[in-house]
Amino acid sequence: MTWHLDPAQVRGYADGTTGGARAASVEAHLLACADCRGLLAAAAPTDRLTAVWNAVQETVDSPRRSWIEQLLIRARVPEDDARLLAATPALQASWLLALVGVLAFATAAAGADDRWLRIFLVVAPLVPVLGVAGAYGRGIDPTYELTRATPYPTVRLLLLRVVAVLTVSVIVTAAFSSVATQGWDALAWLLPSLAMVGLVLVLSRVVDLPLAAGAVALVYVIAVFGLLLRRRDVVDLFARSGQLVSLCVAAACLAVVLSPARRAAFRRVP
Asked: What single-letter DSSP state applies at residue 137?
C-alpha cells in the first residue's frame, strides 16, 4: 500500500462530492485499507445513515397495509389471516378491475341483444371459478413458499382464500347480472357456479388448484358446446333440473371438503 486518503479526500467522499473515476479509486482503496475506513467512518454523516436505517426498520417491522388488508382488519379479521388474505392474487386491484371490465362489457352487450343474454348467463358461473383458480398455488401466489414454510394449516389458508375470492366474485357478478337479466335469471348462474367451485376444491387434493379449476371449466365449456351442437338452448343448463343437480353436487362437495379425513388430506396439498 503506497498511499492513503488525505483528509480532503475523506471529506469529499463522505459528503458525496467526489465522483467518477476518483470515487471508484477511493472505493477500491477502502476495500483494502482498514486505516482509511476508520477515517471515513469518523467523517461520514450519521443523520443520513440513521434515516435510512429507520426507514428499513419501519418497512420490515411495520409494513404498510394494503387497502384490502385494512378493510379485512376493520371487519374484525385477525391480523395474520388478513395479511395472508390480502396477498391473494385474485383479490388484487388488477384482477378486480379486469373482472369489472369483462362483466361491464357483457352487461352492455346483453342489454343490446337478447342473444348476448345467454352468453352472459354462460360466462357468469365461470367468474368465481377463475377467481378461485388464482387463490392459491405454486407459481401464482407470491407468498406460496413462505406459507409452506410456516406452521400455518394449508386447509385453513386455502378455505379462507376461496371464501374471500368467492364472496367478492359472487357479489360483483350478481350486481352486474341484476342489470343484465331480470327475475330468476339474475341468480340462475349461482348454484352451477357453486357446484363447480366445490368440484375444484375436491380435485385440488389430486392436482394443483389452477389445474383443477381449468379442468372443471373445460368440462363446463364442453357441456355448453354439446347443447349448441344438439341445437338446444344453453338456458337449459340453468333450468330446474340443472339447478337440482348443481345443488346436489355443491352439497356433496361441501360434505367432502369439510369432513375430518378431507381436512387432513388438505394439509398435505403440495
From this structure: -
168-203 exposure pattern, b = at least 16 Cβ within 10 A, e = fewer: bbbebbeebbeebbeeebbbbbbbbbbbbbbbbbbb
Higher pLDDT, 79 or 216: 216
- What does the block give as the cell for 259? 369432513
Q: Cα 130 to the chain's mean position, in Å?
A: 11
SS3 state at 208: coil
19 residue type, one letter: G
pLDDT at site 248: 93
pTM of the model: 0.61
Concatenate the DSSP letters of all residues of 181-198 into one string: S-GGGGTTTHHHHHHHHH
Nearest Cα residue to 127 out of 224, 221, 193? 193
Q: How many CB atoms lie within 10 A of CB 89?
A: 19
Query: Angle 79-86/154-180 helices, nearest 10 degrees?
Result: 60
Per-residue pLDDT tens for 163-207? 888 888 888 888 887 777 666 666 788 888 889 999 998 888 788
The Cα–Cα gap between 64 and 51 comes to 18
Q: How many CA atoms, within 13 angstroms, populate the side-chain half-sphere of residue 134?
A: 18
Decide if pLDDT at 260 tops 70.
no
Q: Which of 3-17, 110-124, 177-191 has the highest mean pLDDT?
A: 3-17
Domain ranges of the chain: 7-61, 67-266
Q: Which of 110, 98, 118, 123 is closest to 221 using CA atoms? A: 123
Please, which residues have CB within 8 angstroms of residue 141's CB and are 6 or more apart in sequence? 87, 88, 89, 135, 147
**pLDDT mean over 83-90:** 72
